[in-house]
């Protein structure tokens, strides 16, 4: 191929599939893989087209959603009501690409990003959809909904077994090629780690293929509140979006929508520019948050500023209130300040004021309860980390510093131990375990052996220092989208709080844990 030639997705796939057929499992086509198409995306797309599609004669809808989404859309969840504020209302769903099947398997963006689950998808909703459809809803596709694309899904019982991680923990299989270089090296150097063994109960990691392909199981991130990943400070041309995916592999929402269609929807062709514009415009203009709590009522009453409308007005730009900067304010959440001293009453409002006071105490604990933060990869584990290998005293807002949003306002993938093969409190059962050894080129990490259920950012960077690192998500609309963490290892918010308490030896009392949970439910 001549230098400078433009190569299309179709050409890449034609070459990739041909090579797979004639060379005994080789995946990829270096000659026709231009820089604009990441190697992982070309490999994942080729593999997706080899998997069964699973379309049935009576195809269920692409997801659970109304015919039209007005300015507000409300859904019940386990804590009360979660609500969406749609700043581009009305949205006619049958005419918007976010809700339409653009591939071959009946899926759309909304299949895994539904309004009643905070624009993610809860395990409870997945189970309801499974039994309603007998396992034929588009989310149940053997490609990535099953533990492996070779699983038997020919009967209801077989489907229940194949989709067990999706049903129990809301996990989608993410299959990625082992990186062939370490990012940022010139000339390119191989990754500074090796995978020495894999314990995979599903046999869906293939270290002998070319390239080796690894399978991980991750929760879909919400497709709402995305302005808080995109909005740059004024007059800053160097600003780039925050991480879109857990491992940061997508540079922007357009590329994410493209690759999701090519891979998860098993489309032979990328979406059109009009379709991409519809998807990105819709998901960039919806705001989702808890609107009311059972017993406490509306979260935007009596001086509080919860709910999606106030969220839509929240000031934000990338880098705001960075906890590693000089102007950091640890008082990150101020939604429920006015509930800190509720009026004393013995009437019908007594229960509401009691719950509101608990929410306000939880907010204060999140902002101000100090503890020692140590050995967090990407923060203070290695000499190359931002604060070096030194324990620091911080609060929850140290790593969740975006005001009233709760993600980190700069790119900062962290390893707090969630990906470890065994972590306190968390349920990592059923996940594969990878044994990773850092090679001599890893510097101070040379010879270190790690056992993890997910390599995280290292699958993109090729760096041993990034093993287990993932982004911190936006914390709004939490109650609607259990379970939690990237691997669904925390079934409830109680488990999330208990994990942090044990991981960082915070010493929370039973009452303090209850207050923190009430606060998190109210976001």
Describe the fold and architecture:
Helix 1 crosses helix 2, helix 8 (253-263) crosses helix 9 (273-283) and helix 11 (350-368) packs across helix 14 (510-521). This protein has 14 helices and 13 strands. The protein is globular and about 70 Å long. The chain has 523 residues and is of the alpha+beta class. Strand 8 (286-293) and strand 9 form a beta hairpin. The chain has helices at 9-22, 39-50, 109-112, 123-133, 156-162, 164-169, 227-230, 253-263, 273-283, 308-312, 350-368, 458-461, 493-503, 510-521; strands at 68-69, 72-76, 80-86, 91-92, 172-177, 193-199, 213-218, 286-293, 297-298, 371-373, 392-394, 433-438, 449-452. The longest helix is centred in the last third of the chain and has 19 residues, at 350-368. 25% of the residues lie in helices and 12% in strands. 50% of the residues are buried. The model is unreliable at 1-24 and 28-35 (pLDDT under 50). It has a four-stranded antiparallel β-sheet with strand order 2-3-8-9. A three-stranded antiparallel β-sheet has the order 6-12-13, with no helix packed on it. A two-stranded antiparallel sheet has the order 1-4.
Overview in brief:
The protein is an alpha+beta fold and 523 residues long. It has helices spanning 9-22, 39-50, 109-112, 123-133, 156-162, 164-169, 227-230, 253-263, 273-283, 308-312, 350-368, 458-461, 493-503, 510-521; strands spanning 68-69, 72-76, 80-86, 91-92, 172-177, 193-199, 213-218, 286-293, 297-298, 371-373, 392-394, 433-438, 449-452.
């Amino acid at each position: 191929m001549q230098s400078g030639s433009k190569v299309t997705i179709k050409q890449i796939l034609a070459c990739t599939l041909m090579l797979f057929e004639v060379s005994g499992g080789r995946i990829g086509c270096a000659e026709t893989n231009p820089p604009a198409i990441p190697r992982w995306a070309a490999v994942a797309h080729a593999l997706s087209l080899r998997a069964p599609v699973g379309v049935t004669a009576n195809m269920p809808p692409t997801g659970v959603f109304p015919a039209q989404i007005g300015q507000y859309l409300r859904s019940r969840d386990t804590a009360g009501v979660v609500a969406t504020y749609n700043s581009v209302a009305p949205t006619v769903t049958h005419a918007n690409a976010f809700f339409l099947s653009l591939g071959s398997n009946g899926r759309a963006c909304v299949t895994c990003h539904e309004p009643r689950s905070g624009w993610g998808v809860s395990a409870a909703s997945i189970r309801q959809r499974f039994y309603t459809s007998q396992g034929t809803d588009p989310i149940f596709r053997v490609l990535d909904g099953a533990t492996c694309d070779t699983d038997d899904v020919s009967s209801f019982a077989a489907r229940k077994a194949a989709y067990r991680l999706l049903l129990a923990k809301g996990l989608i299989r993410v299959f990625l090629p082992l990186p062939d270089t370490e990012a940022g090296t010139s000339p390119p150097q191989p990754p500074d780690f090796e995978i020495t063994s894999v314990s995979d109960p599903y046999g869906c990691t293939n270290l002998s293929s070319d390239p080796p392909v690894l399978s991980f199981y991750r929760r879909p991130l919400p497709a709402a509140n995305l302005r808080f990943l995109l909005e740059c400070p004024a007059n800053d041309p160097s600003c780039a979006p925050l991480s879109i995916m857990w491992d940061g592999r997508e540079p922007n929402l357009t590329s994410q929508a493209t690759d999701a269609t090519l891979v998860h929807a098993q489309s032979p062709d990328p979406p059109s520019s009009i379709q991409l514009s519809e998807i990105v415009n819709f998901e960039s203009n919806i705001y989702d948050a808890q609107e009311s709590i059972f017993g406490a009522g509306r979260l935007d009453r009596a001086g509080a500023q919860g709910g999606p409308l106030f969220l839509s007005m929240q000031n934000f730009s990338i880098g705001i209130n960075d906890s590693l900067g000089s102007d950091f304010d640890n008082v990150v959440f101020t939604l429920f300040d006015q509930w800190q001293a509720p009026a004393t009453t013995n009437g019908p409002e007594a229960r509401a004021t009691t719950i509101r006071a608990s929410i306000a105490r939880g907010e204060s604990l999140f902002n101000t309860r100090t503890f020692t933060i140590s050995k967090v990869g990407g923060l203070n584990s290695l000499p190359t980390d931002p604060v070096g290998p030194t324990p620091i005293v911080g609060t929850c807002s140290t790593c969740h510093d975006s005001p009233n949003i709760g993600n980190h306002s700069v790119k900062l993938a962290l390893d707090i131990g969630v990906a470890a093969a065994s972590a306190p409190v968390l349920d990592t059962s059923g996940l594969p375990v990878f044994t990773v050894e850092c090679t001599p080129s890893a510097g101070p990490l040379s010879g270190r052996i790690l056992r993890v259920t997910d390599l995280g950012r290292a699958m993109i960077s090729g760096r041993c220092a990034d093993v287990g690192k993932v982004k911190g998500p936006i914390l709004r609309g939490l109650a609607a989208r259990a379970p939690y963490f990237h691997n669904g290892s925390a079934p409830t918010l109680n488990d999330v709080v208990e994990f942090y308490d044990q991981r960082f030896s915070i010493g929370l009392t039973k009452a303090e844990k209850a207050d923190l949970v009430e606060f998190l439910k109210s976001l």
